[in-house]
Amino acid sequence: MDFLFDPSAEGAVLAPMASFTDAPFRLVAERFGALWAVGEMVMSRSLLQGGAAAWELLRLHPEERSRVVQLAGADPAAVAAAASLVAERVRPRAIDLNMGCPMPKVTARGAGAALLDDPERAARMVAGVREATGLPVSVKLRLGFSRVNVVEVARVLEQAGAALLRVHGRTARQRYGGRADWGRISEVAGAVRIPVVGTGDVRTVADYRERRALGLAVAVARGAVGRPWFFAELRGRAVTLAQKRQAAREHLELHLEWYAKRGELWALRAFRGHLSGYLAGAPPALRREALASESVVRVMEALTGVA
Ligand SMILES: Cc1cc2nc3c(=O)[nH]c(=O)nc-3n(C[C@H](O)[C@H](O)[C@H](O)COP(=O)(O)O)c2cc1C
Questions:
Q1: Which ranges in 134-181 belong to alpha helices (H)?
Q2: What is the DSSP letter of 115?
Q3: Cα separation of 81 and 61, whole Å?
Q4: What is the mean pLDDT of each successive set of 10 residues along the chain, which is 307 residues long?
Q5: 3-state helix, strand, coil in the chain (%, to 5)
Q6: CA nearest 248: which of 189, 200, 304, 210?
């Protein structure tokens, strides 16, 4: 397997999250032991149109180990063409395809989770990207779009050459409501020979152990926001409060450096999602002030409020 991580190892993958899993956050997660860290979804069409913002989202940090980018689109030929450009310019080690996004503006075009309704087209996309890039292709799935058919889709994608599947245990219609169905994720793992990584609602070490007991590899998205040390804890490493505060400040430093060209204020505002996570347990007044602040010095100070 030419992937960078061993799906049977203890620990978890950082699952992609739009506006969160940028290079600085992926790097911080990797430093805490994330097994693999996947970049957020980028539309193939935007890349083919030369959109600077889309290409910027794909930028990899030289120290990242995972080097995996996620592409989305509806047309297999267009996604393969975009993947080929990405392979040449970004030099990823794997391409992840999004077949899980439930947002109507994505699915209305036949992309994201809508692909689950058309396994044949989904399979052509996997095969096309593999052929165009020669890279391993992983796929993010949900349990279904208009019906629950993830087991069938998983089999078809394995046949098409997918190297790994990440399955969010909800249907597209559920969005983020209800509980992720890990029983169904297990069914997928039992139906294919390629590694299956489950995702959905892992917030505590106990949640993680419960999922691992099913024999599954685990990915974490929301549970890692403002908590990148969660990856270390999942590997049995205790992280002290001082280390957490230090990590939060280092994340902000890395973030400011990474976005230096866009200006400090822009970068600081773009950090607010993470800041909100880091200060989840801080006194409400401190949190409110930090989230409105336009001063790097004040925000750095506020990060001593990580609790
Ligand atoms: C804000 C946000 C953005 C997301 N963006 C993406 C994305 O770009 N690509 C993707 O495959 N999944 C995306 N997801 C889904 C997550 O990767 C994950 O499957 C889902 O949140 C369930 O895992 P969790 O309970 O650990 O958060 C996103 C989720 C959230 C909350």
A1: 150-160
A2: G
A3: 24
A4: 79 98 98 98 98 97 97 98 98 98 97 98 98 98 98 98 98 95 98 97 98 97 98 97 97 98 97 97 95 97 90
A5: 50, 15, 35
A6: 304
Q: Give the dihedral sign, CA 138/140/144/146.
A: negative
Helix (H) or strand (E) holding 34: none
Q: Point out the ligand 1 atom lying closest to the alpha carbon of residue 72.
A: 9
The whole-angstrom separation of Cα 131 and Cα 84 is 9
Please confirm, yes or no, whether 101 is among the known catalytic residues.
Answer: yes
The pTM score is 0.97
Sheet holding 12-14, edge to edge: 12-14, 217-220, 196-199, 164-168, 137-141, 94-99, 68-72, 38-43
61-71 tens-digit pLDDT: 999 999 999 99
pLDDT score recorded for residue 164: 97
Sign of the Cα torsion 295, 296, 300, 303 reads positive
Give pLDDT, residue 3.
Answer: 59
Give per-residue burial for 33-63: e unless 16+ CB within 10 Å, then b: bbbbbbbbbbbbbbbeeeeeebbebbebbee
Ligand 1: centre distance to CA 142 (Å): 11
Atom of ligand 1 nearest to the CA of 40: 8
Ligand 1 centroid to 41 CA: how many Å?
A: 10
Look at residue 305 in the predicted model and tell me its pLDDT.
Answer: 83
Active-site entry in 81, 101, 267, 290: 101
For residue 218, which amino acid is it? Answer: V
